[in-house]
Amino acid sequence: MGTDTMLTQVLDSEATAALAQRIGPLLHPGDTLLLEGDVGAGKTHFARHLIRSILITPEDIPSPTFTLVQTYDTQAGSLWHCDLYRIGTTAEIEELGLTEAFETAICLVEWPDRLGPLRPSKSLQITLAHCGDPQHRRLTIGLDDSTWNDRLGALLS
Fold first, then answer.
1. Residues 55, 104: Cα–Cα separation, whole Å
2. Which candidate, 50, 30, 59, 28, places its Cα nearest to that of 110?
3. Are 68 and 88 within 8 A, CB to CB?
4. Over its length of 157 residues, how does the chain's per-residue pLDDT go in tens digits?
5. Which secondary structure element, helix H or strand E, spans residue 18, and what is its range?
6. CA–CA distance, 28 with 7 (Å, rounded to integer)
7. Which helix (H) or strand (E) holds 154?
8. How would you class 129 by CB atoms within 10 Å of its CB: exposed for 0-12, middle for 13-18, buried for 19 or more?
9. 10 Å Cβ neighbour count for 46?
10. DSSP letter, residue 115
11. Strand, helix or coil for residue 122
12. How many CB atoms are closer than 10 A to CB 74?
């Protein structure tokens, strides 16, 4: 599946959080963000700030590394934050109910390479990478569908 690059920037922690907070309110049920990057690249940091930007009631946002999925009630509906690092098969993903959530919830998926053929079309790919400066990350946003460009274009230009 081809992904078109929409934005690449080197950002510090605060700028990464601010971008996540601007994207959050633009999301709707059925939207999937695929958060890619090595361990420590900032995927969970990005997800926490995005989730906080749309929560109905403030709450702690733990990493879903051990629980696999954390769900939240947001202003836009249900949100699933998933960490698939420990997933071994697509059958395990289906057992979690994630394929149904792709249709009905906002989904933030860390380690989306584990999805294989279950990767939803029309997803927004956010890649965070170390870039030599320990205080900054290279953030790249790619999209699988032009509707993301329509929704995020003004925000990211």
1. 17
2. 50
3. no
4. 456 767 788 889 999 999 999 999 999 999 999 999 999 899 999 999 999 999 999 888 988 888 899 999 999 999 999 999 999 999 999 999 999 999 999 999 999 999 999 999 889 999 999 988 888 999 999 877 777 877 887 666 5
5. helix 13-23
6. 21
7. helix 146-156
8. middle
9. 27
10. G
11. coil
12. 22
Edge to edge, the sheet with strand 136-143 lists: 4-12, 136-143, 124-130, 32-36, 106-110, 77-83, 69-74
> Burial level of 28, CB count in 10 A (0-12/13-18/19+)?
exposed
Q: Which of 13, 32, 1, 8 is nearest to 141 (CA)?
A: 8
